[in-house]
Amino acid sequence: MADATLSGPGGAFDADVFVGGDKSLSHRALLFAAIAEGDSLIEGRGAGEDIRSTERALRSLGVLIHNDRVRSPGIRGWATPGGPIDCGNSGTTMRLLAGVLSTSSIEAELIGDESLSARPMSRLVGPLAAIGGVIETTMGTPPLRVGGSGQATASEVQIDIASAQVRTAVELAALAVNGETTIDSPGGFRDHTERWLSAIGRGRWVTDTKFAVTGGPIPPARYEIPGDPSSAAFLWACAAIHEGSRVTTRQVSLNPGRLGFLQILESMGASVEAVVTGATGGDPVGDVTVAARPLHAIDIGGSLVASALDELPLVAILGAFAEGVTTVSDAGELRVKESDRIASVAAMLRALGGGIETADDGFSVVGTGFLEGGTVDSAGDHRIAMSAAIAATRADDPVTIRRAEAAAVSWPDFFSVLEGLWS
Ligand code: S3P
After folding, report:
1. Which domains does the chain show, CATH number per domain?
2. Can you give 121-132 as a three-state secondary structure string?
3. Euclidean distance between CA atoms 331 and 358, whole angstroms
4. From 22, 23, 24, mutation site for ligand 1 pocket: most ligand atoms within 8 A of C-beta
5. Which atom of ligand 1 is nearest to the CA of 164?
6. Which residues contact 2 (CB under 8 A, 6 or more apart)?
7. CA 413, CA 340: separation in Å to the nearest integer?
8. Which one is catalytic: 50, 184, 283, 310?
9. 121-162: per-residue pLDDT in tens?
10. 330 counts as catalytic
11. Rounded Cα distance, 390 and 234, in Å
């Protein structure tokens, strides 16, 4: 698939869906299993290309991965890779692996595709260097050269952005420290890693945002990966903009750092019901139902941004169908995602006849109550490709999405699941 053309508007629907395994948790489960020595089982992990990037990277370090099974010699037995490790489009693969390798005795080069090669990596350098991790960027971006010294020292690490990727990179690097490392940052981040480390006795919370990692080995384990709320969000948004519609997504991660978009939907007037049904490694899981109600504009900023960051392109679409002007600010991080998401969201909405103004750190959308047809370029960004498809379901005329195949980075079945809402 290169271009996809979708016709709207679809009518009302009532659907019940299981989305694929959570991307953040799938990366973490693969890394935890690879750091541990022995056999682990990972059930329900995501099938997106980003997860394949982590699998490929770990294989090049001598970890065996076959279906749900992972067999590792443990990080101390990892092999030196035969060449650069290609992290594809996946920032999570590169940043987490850079952390793990930085305090290991393996020396490696990490590279990525064109988009990843432009993403900021210097944010890792200070925090990892603080515990003796070895990492060198190429003028702040990939390729990265990491590891080799196999040395790490306890420290108090302060991170100045609410990034779960940077926190996790340091936390996994800190497993090599003989002693306790503390990590602190602004709040709003997804705390999957901290919950899993706490569950295996390798960490504890010191304050709401400060976490202490106790160095040492981690055991092989069985991981059950819940559904991805960042995928489910596309279906929630779709239900919210189709009068009379409702969707239930089963067994998705309900980590508090992932719930910002549900708060936004509720504040804009949609009906939202989230029921916790269980937990994996102390990380809550449950069913979420979103139903359409008339939407009104809100202002979004502050710590809500970190917990809704990946879903902000969808806010632009909700805004187009809400009464008033919806504003997103404090979201400069959007500029350094898989695309410049402030620019690509604005281009998407303008291509469909919407009204949007951009700022350095966000955008404002005028609620006109309609979108026209047109052609949207995904900018090679999975979340823009899928957002455009959601817009298409309410657009007056067909929408063509260029480079629609980008959706496969996180959700290869997205287009068929979307179509299935109406069947
Ligand atoms: C992720 C953290 C977030 C998110 C990304 C996945 C993770 O990035 O945007 O898609 O799995 O830790 P930042 O840590 O850069 O905010």
Report:
1. 4-21+227-420 (3.65.10.10), 23-224 (3.65.10.10)
2. CHHHHHHHHCCC
3. 11
4. 24
5. 14
6. 402, 403, 404, 405
7. 25
8. 310
9. 999 999 999 999 999 999 999 999 999 988 899 999 999 999
10. no
11. 7
